[in-house]
Specification:
single chain; elongated; 2 helices; about 40% helix; alpha+beta; Thrombin, subunit H; about 270 residues; 12 strands; six-stranded antiparallel barrel
Amino acid sequence: MVLESNNKKDGNWLPILTTFTISVILIILCNIGWLNWVKPALSYVFDPIYTVSSNGATQVSGYVSTLTNISEFRNEYNQMKIQIAQYKVDIADYRSIKKENDDLKIQLELQNKEYRYVHSKVLDHIEIDYMVINTGLQDGITNGDIVVFGDTFLGIVIECNQYTSIVRLPISKSSFLEVYIISSDDSDGRNILSRAVVNGSSDGIKIENIGMNSGVENGDVVIVNDSKVKDNLVLGHIVGLSKDPATTTRTGYVSPTIDFYDLLNVFVRLKDVD
């Protein structure tokens, strides 16, 4: 059995040895020129094989190169996406800062110098009735403080926490304010046309008790003049004025000067006087 196994091992080496020996002999014969007459035949046989193999190697190389380029393009694309996202963040920050600066300029130009104002940011809205701002007790804000933007009335603080406050907007059903109406026509001398009251509703800010013969028209300006607010502040313009001649007063709605839900910055007017 051992002898048979050794014979098998010797047999396995025989083809390798034979091939090596033939290769050496062929190389020697080629070098001394004895096989020159065979070269054309060998070229005829092996040139197509070489061409096909070369083309195949080129295609494989191109495929590998394409895969490498795709990987590089993907990495560059991902980097570009990150950069674009960062640019968008930077632009949003810039717009926010610019908006804040513009709002501050408006407030500084129009604010009543007798009061102190606390700049606040709008955090959220509770349904359509209330606004949440990012200032509270630590900033000196208390219940009843008035929230404005320039000379426009926005609401009244009804709840203060340490760092936030809740503002009741004029559209809230629990909001009732005394107002007066002046003409939108500058040539009219801004005379008071009528006094009225406004209260919030699901349909908008209602205005009632307008004198029938007051001459009030759609587009006239509504000014808040209430003991809770003290100073005269603009609320908006009259729209949808009733035309029923059988009533003694007229009703309508107030279109706010500023959209409460587009605001980013507001100003809380503190009660204490400098």
